[in-house]
Predict the 3D structure of the following.
Amino acid sequence: MKRRWLLLFLAAAAFAVGAAETNERENTNGGGFSVEVSADVLSDYIWRGTICNGNPVWQPGVTFGYDAGHFGKLAANVWSSYDLTHRRGTSTNSRRSGGAQEFDYTLSYANSVGPVGLEVGHIWYTFPNNNGHSDQDLYATVFHENDYVTPSMSAYWNYSDSAGTDPSAVYFAFALSRDFAPVEGLTLTPKAEVGFADHAYTGSAGGTELTDQTLGFAAKYAFTEWFSVGAQINYTWTPSHTLRHEGYMGEGKHQIVWGGVNATFSF
């Protein structure tokens, strides 16, 4: 399993290098350095179909990017989640208002050939109030932009856990989305997504299972080139009867409606 996934990510990296050599962008000099700061306030923290926190959360993040034109884009992201209530969530040991639940660090590389894009990267998940627990993923995402609907496929390989062992757990996600711009500055995005994972990821007695399905709708309005606000609403459910019985989503639920608002600053 480990060797097979190493070959997968090496192949993805090779594709990205090839994309850098063949991509015919008009702006070959790239856009240089950029910084994006975002902040979301959500009713719940839902991740891959599980309720990480069933209370309101604040999730700020910052991304530092470098656009090298036809050589691709490099990015470094720091993201966090804070519990906004006094109540204890599903996967957090924070017992105080505004308690830090999670800090994630992501390094990524992205490039494209025409409408086909690829992103590969590494994510380090840390949980400061959960006895120093952490996880690490390698991931690859492929998508195809067009005038009708944008399909994407992502693969995540959890290769290291807090004990330093290799669980070789794999999670896949397939999504369809479409952006609409009814008026200048306003973008509306409906989205459908399905995820499934192997036994090492779910721990399910049923083996590989459909873990989650989500239907969502997002709206964003750009007041200026550097400032925008948005909102989203989602319906997520557990399609697998086995995972429902095993309580995959958490908090005794197998479906949930969740959403919130966000603001983004770009420099």
About this structure: The chain has one domain: 2-266. Residues 2-266 form a domain with the Porin fold (CATH 2.40.160.40). Residues 1-10, 12-28, 89-97 have pLDDT under 50 and may be disordered. The helical segments are 2-22, 199-202, 241-245.
